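Q: Sequence in, structure out?
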Amino acid sequence: MVNIKELNPESSPEAAYGARLRRAREARGWKQDDLGVRIGYTGRHVSGVENGRKPPTRRFSIGVDAALGTEGTADSFEREWREISHGSLLEGFPEYVGYEGRAVEIRLYEIGIIPGLLQTPEYAQVLADSAVRRGAITSEQAAERVSFLAERQAALVRSRPPMVFVTIDESCIRRPVGGTSIMDAQLARLIEFAELPNTMIQVAPYEIGERRTFDLPVNLLTLSDRSVICYAESQAQGHLDRESTSVLPMLTAYHQLQAEALSQAATVAMISQLRKGTP
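A: Exactly. Output:
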């Protein structure tokens, strides 16, 4: 009799994924080899994912969804993989991304790095590679992170795109990332962004000092019903908030920050000066 490893779904996100995969497979009366044939993997690989010895990948998850008929659903294995592999891995972020793709207005504030939705692929790759060197993520996770960011950016290119307001701390454009050519291309991307009809970008300069209303990155989404969602994160924690009593003060603080920030014209002028190598 084959010994079946008991799984504790609460021990890790990967264990929860594996336990759910096993339940779904067994409910259909399939052996691991049966599922493997359907998704282009060996039964041994399926076993490794189910037992938590192998991390699920996007390709594997898409195959499972096709085999089980769960593509595009709220319970898809690809969505669960995203929650494991990306990001952000911070609480609330996967749910935030779902709202982001449907928002009619997006307001972003960032410190230190260019916001993800405005990053060039090269800039994003440098950040991901740096995380690999630090041991924070694997090379595969880095590739998936860059791919996922591209998907988020593509989701905003639609027939009725959202209004996107971006306020960035001056540190975002002055912190060199990836060398001169990559940084120059990234600054050029910001200028291109400013020229779009549905966007606004402003730099919050160092001199506003204590009048800067946020000390951490903040994302605010306005949905089609005019409700507002706030997502904020630190290095290790993320929080998604829908309660108007706490979200509306964040929106007020964002407007106050915009009032203190440079105009879009002055912002573009500052970025252009940096590209020329002048302070």
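The CA atoms of residues 32 and 40 lie 12 Å apart.
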